[in-house]
């Protein structure tokens, strides 16, 4: 069985360690079965179809299929696509760029998203997933450790930022475990982190979502400045918010709820 050559331009680092791959695949089922006991577990096992991003040679895919998953693999690398068709014919493969695809055309109902995400576009992948937040109750997978930590950290951390706030508004975010470079071919120069995002109970923000995103992005665009300075162009003259002590804070100190409050005042 021939192997696919990793391409630097696509940020490919193929996972070779089978126990790690199984552990990552299990993260989705653990999320689905949280709080479910007895016979009910068997009833919903494999409930969500899975969309896997960047399967490569299908190491993670094998364990998803083993768990009786309905798997659709999205792969941009034509060599990997050819490999999957040849050696794993039972897997549905879509050749294309995940960032350009409409997930509603891939799966009509809900789905779980998983992958060994390419480091160079991992943030873009999560921003894309946010567009389908009501369709994706579970997101799991592996990405650069620092990015995974940024997504999951809370206010007060130096790495807390735009992606942290926007994802935590809609998901409970868990950093699960760290993966060392030696389990990849070729080994990356950084460590990797595995996380799981589970859709929370929030159905709406109570403010305009686009405005909320703009406030968050504007605030962190000048993260060393206080909110009074970074948001000055958004706050109208005479707005009661101008007297609020919250404007003395820097953006990394604010919770999701406080950003929602800011948006409501500005709006």
Question: What does this protein structure show overall?
Answer:
By secondary structure, the protein is an alpha/beta fold. The protein has two domains: 8-199, Vaccinia Virus protein VP39 (Rossmann fold, 3-Layer(aba) Sandwich), CATH 3.40.50; 209-266, rRNA adenine dimethylase, C-terminal domain (Helicase, Ruva Protein, domain 3). The chain is 36% helix and 17% strand. A seven-stranded mixed β-sheet has the order 4-3-2-5-6-9-7, sandwiched between helices. It has a two-stranded antiparallel ribbon with strand order 1-8. Strand 3, helix 4 (78-87) and strand 4 form a beta-alpha-beta unit. Helix 1 crosses helix 3 (59-66). The longest helix is centred in the N-terminal third of the chain and has 15 residues, at 18-32.
Task: Give a quick summary of the entry.
With 267 residues, this protein is of the alpha/beta class.
The CATH class of the largest domain is: Alpha Beta
Q: Please state the second-level CATH architecture of the largest domain.
A: 3-Layer(aba) Sandwich
CATH H-tier superfamily of the largest domain = Vaccinia Virus protein VP39
CATH level 3 topology of the largest domain: Rossmann fold
Task: Considering the chains and any ligands shown, give keywords for the structure.
2 domains, 267 residues, Rossmann fold, two-stranded antiparallel sheet, Helicase, Ruva Protein, domain 3, single chain, elongated
């Amino acid at each position: 069985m021939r192997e696919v050559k990793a391409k630097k331009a696509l940020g490919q680092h193929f996972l070779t360690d089978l126990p790690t791959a199984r552990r990552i695949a299990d993260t989705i089922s653990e999320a689905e079965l949280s709080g479910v006991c007895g016979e009910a577990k068997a009833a919903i096992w494999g409930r969500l179809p899975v969309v896997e991003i960047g399967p490569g040679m299908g190491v993670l895919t094998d364990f998803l299929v083993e768990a009786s998953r309905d798997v659709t693999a999205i792969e941009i690398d034509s060599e990997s696509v050819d490999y999957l068709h040849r050696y794993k014919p039972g897997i549905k493969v879509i050749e294309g760029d995940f960032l350009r695809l409409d997930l509603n055309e891939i799966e009509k109902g809900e789905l779980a998203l998983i992958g060994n995400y390419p480091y160079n576009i991992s943030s873009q992948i999560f921003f894309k997933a946010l567009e389908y937040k009501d369709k994706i109750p579970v997101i799991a997978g592996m990405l650069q450790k620092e990015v995974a930590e940024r997504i999951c950290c809370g206010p007060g951390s130096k790495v807390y930022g735009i992606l942290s706030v926007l994802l935590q508004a809609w998901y409970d975010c868990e950093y699960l475990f760290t993966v060392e470079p030696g389990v990849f071919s070729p080994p990356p120069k950084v460590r990797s982190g595995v996380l799981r995002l589970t859709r929370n109970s929030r159905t709406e923000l109570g403010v305009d979502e686009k405005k909320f995103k703009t406030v968050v992005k504007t605030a962190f665009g000048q993260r060393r400045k206080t909110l009074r300075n970074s948001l000055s162009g958004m706050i109208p003259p005479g707005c009661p918010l101008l007297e609020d002590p919250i404007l003395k804070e820097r953006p990394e100190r604010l919770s999701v709820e406080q950003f929602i409050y800011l948006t409501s005042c500005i709006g």
